[in-house]
Amino acid sequence: MPKVVDHEARRTRLVEAVWSLAVRGGIEQVSLRKVAEEAGVSMGQVQHYYSSMQALIRDALDRAVRAVNATIENAVAAAGATSAEAVLRTCLHALVSPAEESTRLMRFALAAAGRAVSDPTMAKVLAPGDDELLDFTAGLIRAAREERGSEPRREERADADICWSLATSLGVDIALGYRTPEAAQRLLDHHIEQVLR
Q1: pLDDT tens digits for 151-167?
Q2: Residue 98: helix, strand or coil by DSSP?
Q3: Contact present, 67 and 40 (Cβ < 8 Å)
Q4: Chain-wide mean pLDDT for the chain?
Q5: How far separated are the first and last CA of the chain, in Å rounded?
Q6: Which of 54, 111, 173, 191 has an alpha carbon within 20 to 30 A of 43's alpha carbon?
Q7: What whole-number distance in Å separates Cα of residue 169 and Cα of residue 97?
Q8: Contact at 8 Å (CB) between 141 and 131?
Q9: Within 13 A of 126's CA, how many CA atoms are on the CB side?
Q10: Residues 13-42, buried b or exposed e (16+ Cβ, 10 A)?
């Protein structure tokens, strides 16, 4: 009976190797050979799944962004939040989580950011938020203001953009060791409070 190969598991293993190498030594230290060594596979296997280093880095970055999004979705589901304000806080707090995986993904994104200067495709993946996310967050802010009985301000989309920019910046601070997750959460909560007043 032929052996069943889990191609997705193999790609994930290679991407995990990229994340680890980039976090330890920067994106410039990542090569196909080092990825093969880190993942414990042959160079041929790496080249079977990725035709170039650029393709591998792009996939690793795209998967990091998807992993962060999944972290946010999982945090909302786990919190069982029922109010718009609780969902808003949970979403934003996911970027300043003390979880080791969140910090590792943020460190990888930072390592990849330098490459984005010369690669428009990577820059697009690292962009600070899409229309769908901003619209969703603006809706949460609008609903949370209504729940509090606050007057509508019609600035919700700008507020949503600022909230995500702040949460991302605080996540970077945590990844670099400039702030603790607790300090970042306090600052983020302070800003959310200002937004919802």
Answers
A1: 878 899 999 999 999 99
A2: coil
A3: no
A4: 87
A5: 65
A6: 111
A7: 13
A8: no
A9: 23
A10: bbbbbbbbbbbeeebeebeeebbbebbebe
Write the CA distances from 137 to 146, 170, 178, integer angstroms.
14, 18, 27
pLDDT in tens, 177-197: 999 999 999 999 999 999 998
Choose the most confident range, by mean pLDDT, from 107-116, 120-129, 143-152. 143-152
DSSP label at residue 29: G
Secondary structure (H, E, C), 39-75: HCCCHHHHHHHCCCHHHHHHHHHHHHHHHHHHHHHHH
* Both structure tokens of 59: 């996939």
Q: Which two tokens stand for residue 126?
A: 């690292």
Report the alpha-carbon distance of residue 116 to residue 124 in Å, rounded. Answer: 8
C-alpha span between 62 and 57 (Å, rounded): 9
Answer whether 89's CB lies under 8 Å from 192's CB.
Answer: yes
Q: Could you give phi then psi for residue 20, rounded to 5 degrees?
A: -65, -45
